[in-house]
Automatic annotation (TrEMBL):
Keyword terms, alphabetized: Signal
Occurrences of domain RlpA-like protein double-psi beta-barrel (ranges): 13-102
Organism: Testicularia cyperi
InterPro entries xrefs: Expansin_CellWall (IPR051477), RlpA-like_DPBB (IPR009009), RlpA-like_sf (IPR036908)
Name by which UniProt lists this protein: Non-catalytic module family EXPN
Pfam family, one: DPBB_1
Domain of life (superkingdom): Eukaryota
Amino acid sequence: SHGSSGGNGKYRGKGTWYKPHTRGACGSMDHSSEYIVALSSDIYSGGKHCFRGVRVCEAGSGNCVNAKVSDLCPGCKHQSLDMSPPVFRALAPMDQGVIDIVWSF
């Protein structure tokens, strides 16, 4: 069904980066040195995934990294993630700006 990825199903979207420095939507104080991501609002679903672990991979290279859900990204399209600098850097050079990602909880 739409909106369900099953137990280990993968989401596909765009990956961008931001510098967290305030209290995230999940309520924790976030720092740009942490491995955290912000979810698109359709998946954020009022916070039901807060602090869950995610595995994010860059679609082309296959580079992967583990991170934690900590925030909401209102401007992110369906299934896309906004990532802290260390998460993005593990996948691609920062100056790439936007990458294709595959990810799962």
